[in-house]
Amino acid sequence: MRSEVLRRPAFLSLAALALYLLSRVPFFPDYPISFDALNYMRALEHMDVRLHQPQPPGYPLYILLGRAFLWVSGDPHRALLWLSALSGALAGWALYALGKCIYGQRAGLLAAFFLLSAPTVWFQSEVAAPYTLDLLASIGIALLAWETMQGEGKATPWLLSAALGLSGAFRPQTMVFLAPLAAFALWKRGFRTLLGGGLVAGAVFTLGFVPIVTASGGWEGYRSALGHITEIPAWGQARLEGGSRLLRNALIVLRLTFGAMSEPLWLLALLGAAATLRRPHAAHHRTSGTHVLHPHAAHHRTSGTHVPHPHTAHRTSHSLVFLLWVLPAWGVYVLLWPGNRGTILVSMAPFYLLAAWGAERLIQRRAALGWAVSLAVVIWQVALFAFLPQQPFGEAWRRYDNAETIRWKEAYYRNRIEAVSRLPAEGTLVYAVEFRHLQTYLPQYHTFSPPIFDPQGSGRAVAIVEIREGEQIVHRDPALETLIPPETRRILLFDLPAEALHAPPAWVSSLPVSDAPPLVLLTLPQNARPRWQADGIWVEVPSSVTP
Q1: Which of 428, 400, 443 is closest to 38 using CA atoms?
Q2: 10-62 pLDDT tens trace
Q3: Which of 67, 102, 144, 363 is in Cβ range 3.0-4.6 Å of 160 for a Cys bridge?
Q4: What is the pTM of this model?
Q5: Alpha helices, H only, 46-75
Q6: Do residues 466 and 484 make contact, with C-beta atoms less than 8 angstroms apart?
């Protein structure tokens, strides 16, 4: 009886989930390691995009799921960490299911192991951010799109359409990225299916966004928040135009894409791509001693539409699925914004599948070598995340997101908060791009974001965020004379460069921070009049004061 229980897939799935969580929970940080994490955490208690809780355009489904986890955990940060970790597990399961459909069961398992052991994916499953859920949505929609193209089930096109709409309610960008793939899959079922699916996706998306629009003061309040979607840019961010901007964005996208997989996986992905181009029907080979039948083999009849021969369907859908999956996200990132190490995951799953297919081809040709390479890749990725430094090959090679990254970022914010807390709150003004940490952990300090100036160069301040007693106030078109309160005796730059201060050197000092560069502190004499200008803070020196 016991052996029968052990052989049940449900038991094995639960055991695999338990092992997965055992690999994640020990690395959970006790302290949020990003500005956005605090936006999401605060949104769990009060959702309003006008306050960037969360930031525009908003992520209502992510926040609602986070609230469900908050009900269990009781801590906003912990709730989002659990959501990230479990989303990563489901992403691995979904990639296994898709890999099994395309390449066979063994390749699907390899793809899942490669994905879940990858340092970038592992890192994102340890932070309070929506990127593993984004990865899950991406793979889930691709799986439904594949089954829709193969004629699987009458309800599959509608599930695909609903999933696409939900992805938009979770993260609008994801819906935009995956819409071409979903539309192509629906079109394969006929124009009426495409039209109906589009209506379903639009309806689900609209309904999913109702909670956050309502919570943000209705449509007018939400629309106003969208008008300030780039509310707090990084200090000193370069503004490039035209071809220079596109080239820069393209290079960043390429760098992020390369960094989302380890080097051995890229070698396997190249091998898988070469095998796919050389033999388009490679997925019909025997895998693990069992012939993998293409889903079209049953010649389903769907909606009166002719279902192509399996070989023809494979040739037209396999490579095209990957291209429609990857290129829209890349195109948007190059044209508008290059994303970051988390947002790039929405377009990365096809490369993990190709890596699994490359390993599968090695196993088919030389089983011992193929298994040894696959096991070595997984072991290397685990070691890279859990045990090695961020730059195991020195500064000449790239930096990896791993456990050391988590520990370093957690200490960075914790130590800076501790340093600020040593100053008296009265008379101290803090300027911080990442003001959320002070709002959450040191609400007694009067805090401002750096002002946002007119990009046309007029020198006019267009917006600034003020934190007073933990409450956030967004000022539009503030007067420069009012940006620094007259009772200010100390100005502390939390994460702005020292070059932002234009004052006599004798008035500028350093506030020590454990294991990190010091903070910059400006101590003002009586009657000094600090003033924000477009290039930083200038101090008018009273004639009676000697600098």
Answers
A1: 443
A2: 556 788 888 899 999 999 999 899 888 999 999 999 998 888 888 888 899 99
A3: 144
A4: 0.86
A5: 60-73
A6: no
